[in-house]
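input
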Amino acid sequence: MVVSDRYSDSRYAYQGATLAAHPHLDVEDPLDYVRDVHAPWTRPPDVTVYLDVDPETGAERAGGTNKMEQISFLESVRDNYERLIDDDPDRFVRVDANRSPDAVRADVERAVADRLR
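output
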């Protein structure tokens, strides 16, 4: 068993948002482009625990010190995650991460334990 704090879904969501932020690049669908580029060497995870936090809260918590912590960028990342979830809903477990760290941790622990059974 391997547990990782970042893997293919975050790569797709963040790199797709980065490509989308550069309109001079001629990429019709940045999320699909990134998925296609990485497909040959990516093994899909069995489960992704998605910590769903609104972009404003995420930017505030991260400090907003670089482009990946800005609200507009995080909105694009969140949109990409929603597309990933729509494409494979049974693999994702959504956890409301707008709540306290203790509540989020409890939900993550429960989600992992449920999937291990």
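quick obs: The longest helix spans residues 71-87.
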